[in-house]
Each structure stands twice: as C-alpha cells, then as structure tokens.
Write a structure and sequence with these properties.
binds nicotinamide-adenine-dinucleotide; alpha/beta; five-stranded parallel beta sheet; 12 helices; globular; 15 strands
Length: about 400
Amino acid sequence: MKVAIIGQGYVGLTISAFAGEFFEVIGFDNNQRIVDLLNTGVSHIEGVDSLRLKELIKAGRFYASSDGSKIADADVVVIAVPTPLTKDRQPDLTFIKAACKTISENIRKSVLVINESTSFPGTLRNYIKPAIEKNSKTPIEHMYAISPERVDPGRGDYNQKNTPRLYAGLTPEASAKTRDFYSRFCDVLVEVSSPEVAEAAKLFENTFRQVNIALVNEFAQIAHALGISVYETLDAANTKPYGFMKFTPSAGVGGHCIPVDPTYLAAVAEERGVPATFIRRANEVNLEMSKYIVDRVQADNGGSLQGKSVLVVGVAYKPNVADVRETAAELVIEHLRGRGAVVAWHDDVVGSWQGESSAPLSGADITVVITKHDVVDARVIMASAPYVFDTTGKIAGAKGL
Ligand SMILES: NC(=O)c1ccc[n+]([C@@H]2O[C@H](COP(=O)([O-])OP(=O)(O)OC[C@H]3O[C@@H](n4cnc5c(N)ncnc54)[C@H](O)[C@@H]3O)[C@@H](O)[C@H]2O)c1
C-alpha cells in the first residue's frame, strides 16, 4: 500500500517515520529545501532520527518529493499542513486549501483522505471534501476521515505508538479503513461518532491547556503580590489526590498549537453566537505575561532598563526543541527593547533566529531565562549576570515568578 503524506514538518515527518515501517511512503512537501534534505536522509525535526530516515530510504520505503504527480498512485493520503491564524487572528485554511488542490489535481482513483491538521469542527465535511471534489477534473468518490494529531515533539514517554488516537470517517467504510491504516503503528484507536467530535476534542484538549496555563500565570502574579512562593503553593495544592492538576507558570504559551488552536474554537463558537469569553481571556493573560515579567525585572533593577545589557536565555518555545513559533521570548525581547535595554539572546539549540545568532552565555547586566534546555547548565546561567530572572522555576538562586 502506498501512502502520501502532504506536509513533512513536525507532524507529517513523524507519521512518515512510523508508517514507513509498514507502507511505502511518499513525503510530499512544497518546500524544496526540506525535500532535498530528507532525501539525503537528514531529519529536520526533533523526534525523527536521521538514522531511521536513512534506513527507510535504503529499504525503498520513503522518499520525499515536491512533485505532485508522485502521489498519483497513493492509496491513502494524509494531510499534515499548517493551520495558523491570519493577521487578524482568524483561522487560516490557506495551506489546507493548497493541499486539497494537490490531491484533486493528482489523484486519479478513489483513495482514503485523512486530515491530521488541527482545525475547527466541520473542516473535513464542509471544507476539505468539497474543496477536493470541486477541483477534480473527473468525478471520483473518495473516502474522508479525520484523525487529529497529538504528537508532542521532543517528548520521550509518549509517541505515535502509545498515544491513543481519535478518529472518525465521514462514512463507516472510511472509518474502517482509517482504523486499518493506523492500527499498524498505533496501539490504541478510539473511534468517535463523527468527524466533528474528533475535531472538537483536539481543540478542547489544547484549550484546556491554554486556560489552565493562563490560570496558573495569573496565580503566579497573585502569589508574588501576597509574598508567597507560587511553586511551594502549587506543590501544596498538588498533594490533593483528586480534583487538581498541576500546571506551572511561564512566560506564556508558544508553538503551533496551544496559542493557536483555542482561537479556532473561539472563532467557531462566536460564529454560532456563543461568546468564548473565557477562551479569549486566557489567551490575553498568557500574552500579557511578557509585560509582567519585564515590569518585574525593571522594578528589581532600579526602575529603568535604559542602556542595560540583557541576555534572554532560551528563545525556543519549550525545552529541547528548536521550534520558535509563537515563542513568548519574542514578546519579552520586544518589551525589553521598548524600554531601552540592549538585548542579545542565547539559544544554541535554535542557533539563528530573526536574522540574529545565539550570543555567548556570559557578560550581561541582566539575564532573563525563558526556556531552559537540558544542555544548558544552570550554574553557567547564574554566572552570566549579577541579576538573573528565571521564568521556568528551574534555576536555584535566581529571582523568578
Ligand atoms: N507541531 C506539533 O506539535 C503539532 C501537534 C499536533 C498537531 N499539530 C497540527 O498539525 C498540523 C501541521 O503542523 P506541523 O507542526 O507539522 O507544521 P510544520 O510547519 O512543522 O510542517 C508543515 C509542513 O507542511 C509543508 N507545507 C505547507 N503547505 C504545503 C502544501 N500545500 N503542500 C505540501 N506541503 C506543504 C511545509 O513546508 C512544512 O514542511 C497543524 O495543523 C498543527 O496544528 C501540530
């Protein structure tokens, strides 16, 4: 069986690596640089080992291409393209639309189309299916299903195999075929009654995280105002064996999912006349953390940051990955520069970002830690400046949330 996976990023390449064990996989991506890299056996994401990729290529089970005609004889097509927000923070289905065009222009037989990209309920039924059908030159009945991706890049304990996978087809046949496909490399498959339930469940999972992170970020500010440790208080609350789940404060939320997905849910809610006040506010609280942090740093440093050299440590949105999408570091740096600080950043996992390179971890007036990768030594961070503000709760002896 041939599987075409459209989009070879965090989600698509991860699926390629697992599916390649059982099927012949074509990794379609419209970024030629990524295609070339993958065909030399070099993985560009954490969680997919280059050695594994080389093995699959050697066994004839994987190759990447930017040529749409290569997916023509696929039996299963998986969509794994970005679903970001537009400039005015509305769901942006441009990439899904382009993926649908690639499918309709190139597929000549009936296939199973599975969407793994995160989007609002109704995307499969009301958007993907019509978009593929509209552009097809010949009328072909495809099968359609959704199986929202839950991968957490860089995570060791949960992966494609042991993370339960939700799925639902538009027809019972599509559901059955989707189950057959994933059951080769996923241990637990959970069928839900409609694609809309699967789509909504994925959005709600990430909204749950966004809201709880906002809550703990607000609580961190309350705890500081009360003169108590937020970390000790959370540990104390966490001794309750039921009805509590511990989240930890941070500079905000980042990545392609948590800051974005709740807005998809809010947009669809508001379209139906349901105010998504709580979801909208959670997003704002998390975005406002950057200002709160810079206010604290400024207050601790004589009330002015003018001319002070500030080193921001960790610009990736989370530890041990190079992903900088929607990173809270960006807003923190913006606030620091807005107050006249001379800002450099250190993150050798990211290397270069926004036309700047990772600076040495030393010699600053002030260090602000946003993300701490395992490879960065806390003692070196503490020696990098006379004042260190830590937003991660991992640096003993630093000031912090
Ligand atoms: N990154 C995560 O941790 C994660 C987890 C769960 C779900 N998701 C969801 O999965 C989807 C993909 O996210 P990602 O993180 O893999 O994105 P990504 O940016 O890492 O990868 C997307 C890839 O798609 C390619 N692409 C874009 N348009 C294309 C097109 N028309 N044809 C072919 N290739 C195209 C890009 O070049 C890129 O390589 C999103 O909906 C996201 O919300 C992501």
